[in-house]
């Protein structure tokens, strides 16, 4: 819950795809960012540190690497994509296999 004493920098919406969303959770969340976030990689680190309770799976692995891909407003994005007010960011796991 947003602390009324704190002002937020911007609002974004995130949509978490399995396994990122927790059981019995829609995976859709409105996030009030309370610090300046410039790109998706910064956002992933912020979410892991400040909003980790929303996730059923870590966005950052033990080596500090991203575990997800992102779609911003329906378009594929890279970790250096700039985050803007009102963005809808979908978090999708990297797919591995052989």
Structural class: alpha+beta
Characterize the overall form. Answer: globular
The CATH topology assignment is: Ubiquitin-like (UB roll)
Tell me the number of helical segments per DSSP (H or I, 4 or more residues long): 1
Number of strands: 5
What do we call the CATH homologous superfamily? Beta-grasp domain
Main pleated-sheet profile: 5 strands, mixed
**SSE succession:** EEHEEE
Unreliable segments of 5+ consecutive residues:
none
What is the CATH domain class? Alpha Beta
Averaging pLDDT over every residue, what do you get?
A: 88
Strand content: 25-35%
Overall number of structural domains: 1
Write structural notes for this entry.
This protein is an alpha+beta fold. The protein has one domain: Beta-grasp domain (Ubiquitin-like (UB roll)). The chain has 1 helix and 5 strands, in the order ββαβββ. It has a 5-stranded mixed β-sheet, with no helix packed on it. The longest helix is centred in the middle third of the chain and has 11 residues. It is globular, with a radius of gyration of 13 Å. It starts with 9 loop residues before the first strand and ends in a 5-residue tail after the last strand.
């Amino acid at each position: 819950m947003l602390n009324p004493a704190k002002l937020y920098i911007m609002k974004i919406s995130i949509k978490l795809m399995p396994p990122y969303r927790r059981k019995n959770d829609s995976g859709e969340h409105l996030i009030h960012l309370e610090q300046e976030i410039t790109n998706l990689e910064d956002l992933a680190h912020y979410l892991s540190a400040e909003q980790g309770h929303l996730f059923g799976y870590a966005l950052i692995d033990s080596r500090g690497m991203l575990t997800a891909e992102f779609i911003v407003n329906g378009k594929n994005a890279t970790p250096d994509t700039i985050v803007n007010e009102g963005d809808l960011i979908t978090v999708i796991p990297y797919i591995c296999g052989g």
